[in-house]
Amino acid sequence: MVRRRCRLIVVVDAGADPKCEYEDLSSAIRKIRGDMGISIEVPEEAKRCIFARSDDKTQNKAGRMAFSGTIRYSDVDGPKPVTSHSRRLYDGRLIYIKPAFYNLAEPLDVVNYAVSHGTYPHETTADQFFSESQFESYRALGSFAIEQMSASSI
Hints:
By secondary structure, the protein is α+β, with helices and mostly antiparallel strands. Helix content is 31%, strand content 14%. It has one domain (8-151).
């Protein structure tokens, strides 16, 4: 998508990341910068963990599940010309979504699943056979995250 200069890229990260190390996102940013020379800037608040379980007292309690960053196509394509007839595309926007459980206003069935599964929503994906309750809890949490984001600005 970066190679094609997409102006808006939405990433939904469903990987387990209980220590908030952003391994998958960081790896993608590093490869894009190394292979294409295009940097992706994330806001300062993204450098602190935005997703965690509510019982982790060291983490953000705001219920944040996403952030927006800037894709610097101008690193390679140069500055925007004065004329509007250029075919070049310019800086894009990255929306990074990480559904999280904060126990703030999530649906009751999601809260119940989280209480009985201590690593939710960072359960391992090594076992690809998900139970109906596990699948539905992740689906409902994702739906809740999108509803929350739609009600506020990213």
